[in-house]
């Protein structure tokens, strides 16, 4: 079993066909077939089912695929770090919308000033997509506000993120200090897209209290949600830190939900098998020291 075997195997899984994998690796198809057979013989398992000239990865193959991706990524990182010690090292940081838009930039700036040899690439997306990227070794670490359910991911809490329900001046509930969640029955909801942590959390509270709200606006952009709420198009749920200015100007009004605490943890998330390089450890230390500030 060698790195070459793993590269060939991963290529076959990603391409779905041995012929295409061979072309992508600039080797012959018999070489690909031989490498797959050698892996199967070595471990005494089947990696693929071959049905009607199509390849279907087995459960054992899926397990090997998860390990192979991380082994290859760690190997490639080692090659880069040892062969280019004088050059910049890349860190791939993921962040969910609130953290990436309102909180991460000051900490990134501080880290880059202290570590000029490290080049950071930031990806901002929803919780579901970031989990996928972490599982597929497309990110080194993620700053995530939503729930993390994948068993292969580990998380460490950084801070609490209080959530609030808010409406604009044109909404009939503007001015209400507090209400039971049942009072939201039948109102329009302005919310993030499916896969968003804030949407999942609020929907769970609605379901627990059997409250039905119609989704009128759905988008990935917090500023667009603000604009719709200000215009009175419906009720929205925000991270409290994202609407501080609008609340001060009284163009958005916060309504407390009686007996319900809307809050979520912001966590640092990584794969359980992720190799923590010196540069990544430095980034995590900077995050712990400086925290995330709006």
UniProtKB/TrEMBL annotation:
Record flagged with keyword DNA-binding: yes
Single GO MF descriptor: transcription cis-regulatory region binding
Gene3D superfamilies: 3.40.190.290, Winged helix-like DNA-binding domain superfamily/Winged helix DNA-binding domain (1.10.10.10)
Keywords in alphabetical order: DNA-binding, Transcription, Transcription regulation
Database matches in SUPFAM superfamilies: Periplasmic binding protein-like II, Winged helix' DNA-binding domain
Domain HTH lysR-type: 1-58
Similarity remark: Belongs to the LysR transcriptional regulatory family.
Protein name: Transcriptional regulator, LysR family
